[in-house]
Amino acid sequence: MSELFPFKNHPFQVRDDEATIIMVDSNLQREKILPSEKAFAYKMKLEALKHQGQRSDLTLERGVPKLPARDKIAQDAGESCGLTVTRYIALTKLIPPLLALVDEDKLSFSTAADYISVLTEQEQTALVSVMDKLNIIPVKGQLAKIKQHSKDGTLTVTVIEGLLSAEHPAAVQVVLKQTRLHQYFPQSYTAQQMEEVIVSLLETWSIQHR
Protein backbone atom coordinates (compact mmCIF):
# COMPACT_ATOMS: atom_id res chain seq x y z
CA MET A 1 0.00 0.00 0.00
CA SER A 2 2.80 2.41 0.79
CA GLU A 3 4.24 1.92 -2.71
CA LEU A 4 0.94 2.80 -4.37
CA PHE A 5 0.19 5.83 -2.21
CA PRO A 6 3.48 7.35 -1.02
CA PHE A 7 1.90 10.68 -0.05
CA LYS A 8 2.26 11.37 3.66
CA ASN A 9 -0.02 8.51 4.68
CA HIS A 10 -3.02 9.85 2.75
CA PRO A 11 -4.13 6.75 0.76
CA PHE A 12 -6.93 8.60 -1.02
CA GLN A 13 -4.84 11.59 -2.14
CA VAL A 14 -4.20 10.15 -5.61
CA ARG A 15 -7.89 9.35 -6.13
CA ASP A 16 -8.86 12.85 -4.96
CA ASP A 17 -6.36 14.41 -7.35
CA GLU A 18 -7.60 12.31 -10.25
CA ALA A 19 -11.18 13.31 -9.46
CA THR A 20 -10.14 16.99 -9.42
CA ILE A 21 -8.40 16.66 -12.78
CA ILE A 22 -11.42 14.93 -14.34
CA MET A 23 -13.76 17.59 -12.94
CA VAL A 24 -11.58 20.46 -14.20
CA ASP A 25 -11.19 18.92 -17.67
CA SER A 26 -14.95 18.41 -17.86
CA ASN A 27 -15.71 22.02 -16.90
CA LEU A 28 -13.20 23.32 -19.44
CA GLN A 29 -15.17 21.64 -22.25
CA ARG A 30 -17.93 24.25 -21.91
CA GLU A 31 -18.38 26.52 -24.92
CA LYS A 32 -18.15 29.79 -22.99
CA ILE A 33 -15.58 30.04 -20.22
CA LEU A 34 -14.65 33.27 -18.46
CA PRO A 35 -10.95 34.04 -17.92
CA SER A 36 -11.51 33.91 -14.16
CA GLU A 37 -13.04 30.43 -14.47
CA LYS A 38 -10.06 29.24 -16.51
CA ALA A 39 -7.70 30.79 -13.98
CA PHE A 40 -9.05 28.93 -10.96
CA ALA A 41 -9.59 25.72 -12.94
CA TYR A 42 -5.96 25.69 -14.14
CA LYS A 43 -4.77 26.43 -10.61
CA MET A 44 -6.76 23.49 -9.22
CA LYS A 45 -5.44 21.15 -11.90
CA LEU A 46 -1.85 22.31 -11.39
CA GLU A 47 -2.07 21.65 -7.65
CA ALA A 48 -3.57 18.20 -8.31
CA LEU A 49 -0.79 17.31 -10.77
CA LYS A 50 1.83 18.47 -8.28
CA HIS A 51 0.25 16.27 -5.60
CA GLN A 52 0.51 13.30 -7.93
CA GLY A 53 4.22 13.97 -8.28
CA GLN A 54 6.31 11.31 -9.99
CA ARG A 55 3.39 8.86 -10.02
CA SER A 56 1.56 10.97 -12.64
CA ASP A 57 3.73 9.57 -15.43
CA LEU A 58 2.60 5.96 -14.86
CA THR A 59 -0.23 6.39 -17.36
CA LEU A 60 2.15 7.45 -20.15
CA GLU A 61 3.20 5.04 -22.84
CA ARG A 62 6.70 3.64 -22.61
CA GLY A 63 9.23 6.00 -24.20
CA VAL A 64 6.93 9.05 -24.09
CA PRO A 65 8.57 11.85 -22.08
CA LYS A 66 6.62 13.34 -19.20
CA LEU A 67 5.49 16.92 -19.83
CA PRO A 68 5.96 19.64 -17.20
CA ALA A 69 2.65 20.17 -15.37
CA ARG A 70 1.87 23.54 -16.94
CA ASP A 71 2.65 22.30 -20.44
CA LYS A 72 0.40 19.29 -19.89
CA ILE A 73 -2.45 21.56 -18.77
CA ALA A 74 -1.90 23.71 -21.86
CA GLN A 75 -1.89 20.67 -24.15
CA ASP A 76 -5.06 19.22 -22.61
CA ALA A 77 -6.88 22.56 -22.77
CA GLY A 78 -5.73 23.53 -26.27
CA GLU A 79 -3.68 26.50 -25.08
CA SER A 80 -0.63 27.62 -27.03
CA CYS A 81 1.93 26.89 -24.28
CA GLY A 82 2.57 26.56 -20.57
CA LEU A 83 3.21 30.31 -20.31
CA THR A 84 -0.44 30.95 -21.16
CA VAL A 85 -1.47 28.69 -18.29
CA THR A 86 0.94 30.55 -15.99
CA ARG A 87 -0.66 33.84 -16.97
CA TYR A 88 -4.16 32.54 -16.35
CA ILE A 89 -3.18 31.24 -12.92
CA ALA A 90 -1.68 34.66 -12.12
CA LEU A 91 -5.20 36.10 -12.48
CA THR A 92 -6.17 34.33 -9.24
CA LYS A 93 -4.06 36.96 -7.43
CA LEU A 94 -6.29 39.83 -8.65
CA ILE A 95 -8.81 41.43 -6.34
CA PRO A 96 -12.47 40.96 -7.47
CA PRO A 97 -12.99 44.38 -9.17
CA LEU A 98 -9.93 43.89 -11.39
CA LEU A 99 -10.76 40.27 -12.15
CA ALA A 100 -14.24 41.39 -13.19
CA LEU A 101 -12.70 43.85 -15.70
CA VAL A 102 -10.77 40.95 -17.26
CA ASP A 103 -13.96 38.89 -17.51
CA GLU A 104 -15.70 41.86 -19.13
CA ASP A 105 -12.84 42.15 -21.67
CA LYS A 106 -12.03 45.67 -20.48
CA LEU A 107 -8.58 44.56 -19.36
CA SER A 108 -6.38 42.24 -21.39
CA PHE A 109 -5.83 39.01 -19.48
CA SER A 110 -2.13 38.94 -20.37
CA THR A 111 -1.64 42.57 -19.32
CA ALA A 112 -3.47 41.97 -16.05
CA ALA A 113 -1.40 38.85 -15.41
CA ASP A 114 1.96 40.41 -16.28
CA TYR A 115 1.58 43.82 -14.65
CA ILE A 116 -1.27 43.86 -12.11
CA SER A 117 -1.12 40.42 -10.49
CA VAL A 118 2.33 41.21 -9.08
CA LEU A 119 0.96 44.17 -7.10
CA THR A 120 0.00 43.70 -3.48
CA GLU A 121 -3.67 43.63 -2.52
CA GLN A 122 -3.29 47.12 -1.05
CA GLU A 123 -1.70 48.43 -4.25
CA GLN A 124 -4.42 46.85 -6.37
CA THR A 125 -7.07 48.46 -4.18
CA ALA A 126 -5.38 51.83 -4.62
CA LEU A 127 -5.26 51.29 -8.38
CA VAL A 128 -9.00 50.54 -8.51
CA SER A 129 -9.69 53.65 -6.43
CA VAL A 130 -7.82 55.88 -8.90
CA MET A 131 -9.40 54.15 -11.91
CA ASP A 132 -12.86 54.82 -10.48
CA LYS A 133 -11.96 58.43 -9.69
CA LEU A 134 -10.62 59.17 -13.18
CA ASN A 135 -13.08 56.84 -14.90
CA ILE A 136 -10.37 55.25 -17.04
CA ILE A 137 -8.86 51.85 -17.73
CA PRO A 138 -5.03 51.98 -17.68
CA VAL A 139 -3.11 50.84 -20.72
CA LYS A 140 -0.09 48.54 -20.82
CA GLY A 141 2.49 51.35 -20.75
CA GLN A 142 0.94 52.91 -17.65
CA LEU A 143 0.72 49.58 -15.88
CA ALA A 144 4.37 48.84 -16.69
CA LYS A 145 5.37 52.03 -14.87
CA ILE A 146 3.07 51.20 -11.96
CA LYS A 147 4.69 47.76 -11.71
CA GLN A 148 8.15 49.33 -11.65
CA HIS A 149 7.17 51.75 -8.88
CA SER A 150 5.81 48.79 -6.91
CA LYS A 151 9.11 46.95 -7.38
CA ASP A 152 11.01 50.04 -6.21
CA GLY A 153 8.73 50.46 -3.19
CA THR A 154 7.59 53.90 -4.32
CA LEU A 155 4.03 53.15 -5.42
CA THR A 156 1.38 55.31 -3.74
CA VAL A 157 -2.10 56.55 -4.61
CA THR A 158 -0.56 59.90 -5.60
CA VAL A 159 1.93 58.21 -7.92
CA ILE A 160 -0.81 56.10 -9.53
CA GLU A 161 -3.03 59.14 -10.04
CA GLY A 162 -0.15 61.10 -11.54
CA LEU A 163 0.70 58.33 -13.99
CA LEU A 164 -2.87 57.74 -15.12
CA SER A 165 -3.75 61.44 -15.33
CA ALA A 166 -0.65 62.53 -17.22
CA GLU A 167 -0.88 59.85 -19.87
CA HIS A 168 -4.62 59.67 -20.30
CA PRO A 169 -5.39 61.07 -23.77
CA ALA A 170 -8.23 63.53 -24.06
CA ALA A 171 -11.33 62.09 -25.66
CA VAL A 172 -11.92 63.15 -29.26
CA GLN A 173 -15.44 64.32 -29.94
CA VAL A 174 -16.93 65.52 -33.20
CA VAL A 175 -20.32 67.21 -32.94
CA LEU A 176 -22.42 67.67 -36.07
CA LYS A 177 -25.48 69.84 -35.84
CA GLN A 178 -28.72 68.14 -36.78
CA THR A 179 -29.74 70.98 -39.10
CA ARG A 180 -26.55 70.54 -41.08
CA LEU A 181 -26.91 66.78 -41.34
CA HIS A 182 -30.49 67.01 -42.60
CA GLN A 183 -29.21 68.85 -45.66
CA TYR A 184 -27.90 65.48 -46.84
CA PHE A 185 -30.44 63.02 -45.43
CA PRO A 186 -34.17 62.54 -45.83
CA GLN A 187 -36.18 64.01 -42.95
CA SER A 188 -37.39 60.53 -42.06
CA TYR A 189 -33.85 59.28 -41.24
CA THR A 190 -33.15 58.60 -37.59
CA ALA A 191 -29.87 59.50 -35.87
CA GLN A 192 -28.82 55.84 -36.00
CA GLN A 193 -29.49 55.60 -39.75
CA MET A 194 -27.47 58.76 -40.38
CA GLU A 195 -24.61 57.43 -38.27
CA GLU A 196 -24.55 54.17 -40.21
CA VAL A 197 -24.32 56.01 -43.55
CA ILE A 198 -21.57 58.33 -42.26
CA VAL A 199 -19.50 55.43 -40.91
CA SER A 200 -19.91 53.54 -44.19
CA LEU A 201 -18.70 56.55 -46.16
CA LEU A 202 -15.75 57.05 -43.80
CA GLU A 203 -14.73 53.40 -44.23
CA THR A 204 -14.75 53.84 -48.02
CA TRP A 205 -12.74 57.06 -47.69
CA SER A 206 -10.22 55.36 -45.41
CA ILE A 207 -9.66 52.50 -47.87
CA GLN A 208 -9.14 54.93 -50.77
CA HIS A 209 -6.54 56.98 -48.84
CA ARG A 210 -4.38 54.17 -47.48
Quick overview:
The chain is mainly α and 210 residues long. The chain has eleven helices and no strands. 20% of the residues are buried.
Structure description:
The structure is a single chain. The protein is mostly helical and 210 residues long. It has three domains: 80 residues, no CATH class; 56 residues; 31 residues, no CATH class. Helix content is 60%, strand content 0%. It is built from eleven helices and no strands. The termini are far apart.
Topology:
Blueprint lengths: L12 H15 L7 H18 L16 H9 L4 H9 L5 H8 L5 H8 L4 H14 L5 H13 L4 H10 L11 H4 L9 H18 L2
Helix pairs in contact: 1-2, 2-4, 3-4, 4-6, 7-9, 8-9
Structural class: mainly alpha
Number of contiguous helices: 11
How many DSSP E strands?
0
* Helix-strand topology string: HHHHHHHHHHH
What is the mean pLDDT?
78
Unreliable segments of 5+ consecutive residues: 1-14, 54-65
**Relative helix content:** 55-70%
**What form results from the Cα inertia axes?**
extended
Features:
210 residues; mainly alpha; 3 domains; 11 helices; 60% helix; 0% strand; extended; disordered N terminus
